[in-house]
Amino acid sequence: MERNFVCSVIKHERVVTTLPKAKALQRNVEKMITLGKKQDLTRLRKAIAYLRDKDAAHKLFEELGPRYADRPGGYTRVVRLSEFRVGDGTPKAILELVDNKVLEQQLEAAAADEDLDQDRDED
What we know:
Number of helices: 5
Strand order of the largest sheet: 1-3-2
Oligomer: single chain
């Protein structure tokens, strides 16, 4: 479960989960990003062994490592949501990477969809 969660955070840069799980696994995500800051074969092999996903490991070393190269730590944040999980009432949270572009991409995609809808309505 831990490896899959860390892999999902690296791939998507933002994951909605429960608050206790986000706090517990934040440490593992931070360690993997620290591993990806220096480019060498040993660190790449360690990342692939932990993540068990070559695509996520390559994203870690090619995108995330250089992005956080000057940052001494604190690559993730946990944001509490006002919602609770249905069934057991556990508080929900978002574990996301700092300086991600996920929200901007979603807003751009929504704006593009609205433009397409307006163009279709005019025709």
